[in-house]
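To the wet lab folks,

You asked to see what we're planning to order before we commit. Fair enough. Below is the target structure as C-alpha cells, and below that is the sequence we designed to fit it. If anything looks off to you, flag it before the synthesis order goes out.
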C-alpha cells in the first residue's frame, strides 16, 4: 500500500488559502479513489477532506459576497454598485 497524503493539523485548515486547500483536497480524493490507503487512514483523511471542503465553501461564499455589480444609468454611465445577486 502507498501512503496517503500528509495533512496539516485541523487547526491549520482555517489558515490555508483556497488554492492550497483545494490542492490538498484533490490529493485526498485521489488517494481514496485509488483505494490503496488503509481503512483507518482512509477514514482519517476522509474527515480531513470534509473539513477542507467546508473551508473552501466558506472562502467561496466570502468571495461571492465581495463581488458587486456596477449599476448603469439610462445613458449607460456607471451610477453605483449593488450586490451581484440583487436582481
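Sequence we intend to order:
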Amino acid at each position: 500500500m502507498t501512503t496517503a497524503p500528509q495533512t496539516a493539523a485541523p487547526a491549520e485548515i482555517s489558515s490555508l488559502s483556497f488554492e492550497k486547500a483545494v490542492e490538498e483536497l484533490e490529493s485526498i480524493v485521489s488517494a481514496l479513489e485509488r483505494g490503496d490507503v488503509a481503512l483507518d487512514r482512509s477514514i482519517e483523511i476522509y474527515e480531513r477532506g470534509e473539513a477542507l471542503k467546508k473551508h473552501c465553501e466558506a472562502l467561496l461564499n466570502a468571495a461571492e459576497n465581495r463581488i458587486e455589480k456596477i449599476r448603469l444609468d439610462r445613458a449607460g454611465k456607471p451610477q453605483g454598485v449593488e450586490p451581484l445577486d440583487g436582481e
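Structural context that might help your review: The chain has a mean pLDDT of 84. The chain has two helices and two strands.

Thanks,
Computational group
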